[in-house]
């Protein structure tokens, strides 16, 4: 069997969309499963929209996901360069070959003329396609157009008889009538190639054996196959994966929430969870397995198990999955994540990051089972590092304004200050004794304490919180409310 060579070829016009990340992942898994080569190519010929910043964002997102490439930017390889803007001479050479073979011709039609003819076709109910006005221009006509200052594009002379069949590895045989395929532009007036031409040259010269991409590219495929055939280049195998839709079954977009890998990373999703969830958007092993290690995905991945039906992006599902991964995360790694986020939020000085790690590990022992993503680490931990607590107004009104609270908090402070050994057991004894003396329910004692210390009604066990806060900080915070509420 020939070596499998798969590729991911993003256009650097923004962030890496989750759909693009899923495509990259499927290609990476396919290559790794077959012991093949995964190629990264940057399709940056869109001069108006492509930016170096977007290139860096995409590369960083792929690194974060753990999708390493065997050939591509920063790695090199035998079929480079791996950026289209560095391959322009290749496109011009292959365009010249098509022109010399009579399969490409110069077109001088202006955008205004093309639009006028397009509108006329629409009004008459005919298919909108180029009418080949410039196919058989005389030399005199070409000279006249050029004297007018018209800069031509180069069009591919498509086969308009019969049909082009795409043998898709997911969808089976897909047939396209050639008469509906027009003579599309392959070289624009600025000298840059169009997508449908450049992708053929690149995939052929980079020896790509399998093109795995979104089904929105399926309609481009017959045009590309014709270019392969006209240049006598080997045609790769195609596999068009289902689209990713939102819960409303519309194409995934900003209205559904975060759509880029970078956004999910910033919100605190783990790369392990992201890879696992993306793999399940269109692929499955069976109805029982949802959690996979990267190694298991590589072992089991196959194109035969990819569905033809659209995949639904479910935020609740990825939240659940991320929570599962967080609960199994080594506490040392979680502590470092928390320290970085606390530092970024201004609660932890940079020079205290390393020293804070043992304490953070102890704090996270109480928190780890509760969080769904790393973005929740700061709300659950910040109050251990500052007295500037963010108080929930409704919680304050309900639990810190009753008449009995100031005296009770003062009594709690006295009990905590009198403890010889400031342990969880000793702290519990203080509040059990306070409850008995006042004849109150334990919740009526602890909820005001909880709000006074954390600003909220939800926290880990109160005795553990007080112990981790430390005697001085806990008493200082309780004393403030004992005074202000009196």
Automatic annotation (TrEMBL):
Pfam families: Anticodon_2, tRNA-synt_1c. It comes from the Bacteria. InterPro entries: aa-tRNA-synth_I_cd-bd, aa-tRNA-synth_I_codon-bd_sub2, aa-tRNA-synth_I_CS, aa_tRNA-synth_I_cd-bd_sf, Glu-tRNA-ligase_bac/mito, Glu/Gln-tRNA-synth, Glu/Gln-tRNA-synth_Ib_cat-dom, GluQ/Sye. GO terms for cellular component: cytosol. GO terms for biological process: glutamyl-tRNA aminoacylation. A motif ('KMSKS' region) lies at residues 251-255. PROSITE patterns: AA_TRNA_LIGASE_I. Residues 348-480 form the Aminoacyl-tRNA synthetase class I anticodon-binding domain. Its EC number is 6.1.1.17. A motif ('HIGH' region) lies at residues 10-20. It is found in: Cytoplasm. Residues 3-320 form the Glutamyl/glutaminyl-tRNA synthetase class Ib catalytic domain. It catalyses: tRNA(Glu) + L-glutamate + ATP = L-glutamyl-tRNA(Glu) + AMP + diphosphate. Keywords: Aminoacyl-tRNA synthetase, ATP-binding, Cytoplasm, Ligase, Nucleotide-binding, Protein biosynthesis. It is an enzyme of class 6 (ligase). ATP binds at residue 254. GO terms for molecular function: ATP binding; glutamate-tRNA ligase activity; tRNA binding; zinc ion binding. Belongs to the class-I aminoacyl-tRNA synthetase family. Glutamate--tRNA ligase type 1 subfamily. Monomer. Catalyzes the attachment of glutamate to tRNA(Glu) in a two-step reaction: glutamate is first activated by ATP to form Glu-AMP and then transferred to the acceptor end of tRNA(Glu). This is Glutamate--tRNA ligase. It comes from Limnochorda pilosa.
